[in-house]
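Dear H.,

Thanks for agreeing to be a second pair of eyes. The structure we're designing against is below in token form, covering all 85 positions.
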């Protein structure tokens, strides 16, 4: 059994979505719909933008958790200083 080949959805210059197998990344391809030549650039693929969106969402989550942790710490410090007076 062979592993399924990973494909990337990359738009041609006329915005046709072309399924590009991983081994053809960075090669010059010809769009099957409009015959225009274009480079299979990973950063232009839908997979790449999905990954960027996930990464941005994860970073926001980390920032949100960090902010909450700081607020809780500040609250504990404020409470402790009240109790010590
Ligand atoms: Zn095309």
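And this is the sequence the design step returned. I haven't edited it by hand at all.
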């Amino acid at each position: 059994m062979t592993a399924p080949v990973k494909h990337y959805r990359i738009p041609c210059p006329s915005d046709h979505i072309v399924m590009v197998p991983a081994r053809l990344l960075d090669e010059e391809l010809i769009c099957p719909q409009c015959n225009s030549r274009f480079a299979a650039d990973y950063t232009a693929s839908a997979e790449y933008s999905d990954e960027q969106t996930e990464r941005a969402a994860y970073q926001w989550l980390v920032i949100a958790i960090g902010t909450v942790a700081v607020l809780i710490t500040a609250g504990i410090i404020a409470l402790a200083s009240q109790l010590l007076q």
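Two observations from my side: The mean pLDDT is 95. The chain has two domains: 1-44, 57-85.

Warmly,
E.
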